[in-house]
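QA checklist item 7 of 12: single-chain prediction sanity check.
[x] sequence parsed
[x] length recorded as 101
[x] structure emitted
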Amino acid sequence: MWIEGIGLAAATMTTLAFVPQVIQVWSSRSAKDISMPMYLMFSTGIALWFVYGLFIESFPVTAANGITFILAMMVVVMKVRFDREEKQQLALEDSLSKGSD
C-alpha cells in the first residue's frame, strides 16, 4: 500500500509541474518559445502511458498521465491560437505601415 503512496506522490509532483507552464502561456498570451514538436511527442508519450496505466490497472499512472495529457494539450491549443493571433496582428501592422508609406 505504501508503494501506491509513492506512486501517487510522484504522479502529483510531475503533473503539477505543468501547471506553471499553462499559467505562464495563458497570462502572457504567448507561446512563441514553446516547441510544438516536443509537445506533440511528449503528449503522444503521455497518452501511451495513460493507456498502459489502464492495462496494468494503476490509478497513479492513469490519473497522472490523464491530467498531464490535458495540461499539455492546453499548451498546444494555446500555442496554435496565440501564434495565429500574433501572425494576424503582424500582418495587420504590416499592411497598415505599407498603406501609410
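[x] summary fact logged: The mean pLDDT is 90.
[ ] second reviewer sign-off
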